[in-house]
Structure formats: structure tokens, C-alpha cells
Amino acid sequence: MSDLVRNVRSWFVPEEVRGEGSTPDYRFSLANERTFLAWLRTALALIGGGFAVDQFLPDLGRPWRLGLALALLGAGVLCALRAVNHWVRCERAMRRGEDLPVSRFPALLGLVIGAVAVVMVVVVMLGREG
Amino acid sequence: MTGPAGRPGRDPGLQPERTRLAWRRTTLSCTVAAVLAVRTALHHGSVSGYVVGPACCALWAAFLALAQVRIRALASAPAAGPRRLPARHAALAALGTVALAVCAAVLVV
Questions:
Q1: Measured between alpha carbons, how far is A74 from A68 in angstroms, rounded to an integer?
Q2: In this complex, which of A40, A52, A91 lies closest to B94 when CB atoms are compared?
Q3: Residue A90 contacts by C-beta under 8 Å, 6 or more apart in sequence?
Q4: In the Cβ-directed half-sphere of A18, how many Cα atoms lie within 13 Å?
Q5: Does Transmembrane helix show up as a keyword for this record (chain B) (predicted)?
Q6: Is residue B5 part of a domain?
Q7: B1 within some domain
């Protein structure tokens, strides 16, 4: 838990990160920045998906529509927060010359998106028949 | 090292350029999300729609400004390479995305 607090603190106190280890090649930092931006785009796409479920599936029952939209929005929030956390951790690891942090998050996100997609297909098909 | 443009120390991997385009792509994603948000707010039509719609526009403008600041920093890079992305900058971009999701939740519920 204290690890998390320390990470969140370093989002806003960048001097702490800069004080550690040595400055890596700027190209590595830029690659890390692009990975961060790619995750942010994923988050924005999930949020856009949440809006789309709400707007473009009007025939769906309200509980289903609300549930799917909130699931997508929640995934988007997690994705954005994780993006910045992972960026800080990678930046710190590069400064210290450590291995880059490993993460379960991509696998989890893949499973969640797969599950949401299956639910959406089933719900839309049933809605069309009924 | 001299690149085709004749600028000394130009990175042959075009890392700053690729990073600039990544910011552009992300701004485009933000625009799509913001357009969907405004559409939802207009359909909503209630008081919360009139509050949240402009809030989403403001978030989009803030993201655009953030991207612009970063792109300018990348373009005016010294020979040693551009300045690293400040952590505060990254945190603001992520928190703006979270705020957009909160606006979405208010509209959807």
C-alpha cells in the first residue's frame, strides 16, 4: 500500500524520481512516453465505447445498457490511472538500471474486454429476437 | 551525425517526431470521446446535461493545450535530446481522462 502512495506522490513531485539513479538515454524516455500515450488512447476508446453503448443501443433494457456502459467507463478509468502509474514505475526502473516492471494488467484488460464483447453480442442478439 | 534536414544531432530513429504524432493521435482520440460526450449531453437535455456538456468541452480544450505544450517542447529540443515528459504533465493527462469518464457516468446514470 505504501508503495502505491509513494507512486502517486511521485506523479506530482517529479523531483523525487529525477533524484534517483542516472538519467537514461532520452530515446528510452520518449518510447516510455509513447507507451503511456497508447494506454491513454485505450482508456479514451473505452470511455468512448461507454458513451456509444448509452447512445447507440436505445432498444436495450436500461439495466443492461447502464451495466455495460459503466463497465466500459470503469475499465477506462482503471486504464488511465494504470497508464500513468506504469509510466512512473518504468521511468524509475530505467533510472536505477533495473528490469522494467512486469504487469498482469494487459491480460486482465484483455479478459474484461472479451467478456464485455461477448455479453454485448448476446444481449444485442436476444434484444433483436425479443 | 547530420540528418537529411542538415540539423546536427538529429535522431535517425525520429523519436521526437514519433512522440509528437503519438500526442496528435491521443488528442484525436480525446476529440472523438468529447464529441460523443457532447452528443450525449445534448440528448440528455436536463440541467446536468447543460453543466456536463461544457465541462467536457473544457476538458477537451485542456487536453489540447497540454498536447500543444508538449509538442512545442519536443520541437525546440536541444542537441542532447528533448526534455523528458514531466510527471505532473502525465498525471494531468490521465486525470483529465478520468474526469471525462466521471462526466460520462453522470450523463449515463
A1: 10
A2: A40
A3: A32, A35, A100, A101
A4: 11
A5: yes
A6: no
A7: no
Full domain range(s) for residue B23 = 15-108
Residues A58-91 have pLDDT tens digits of 877 888 889 989 999 999 999 999 999 999 999 9
Number of DSSP helices (H) and strands (E) in chain A, helices first: 5, 0
Q: Per the domain annotation, does B6 fall within a domain?
A: no
pLDDT > 70 in chain B, percent: 89
- The pLDDT tens digits of the residues spanning A102-120 come to 899 999 999 999 998 998 8
Answer yes or no: do B25 and A10 touch at CB < 8 A.
Answer: no
Does any domain span residue B2? no
ipTM reported for the complex, 2 dp:
0.86
Structural domains in chain B (count): 1
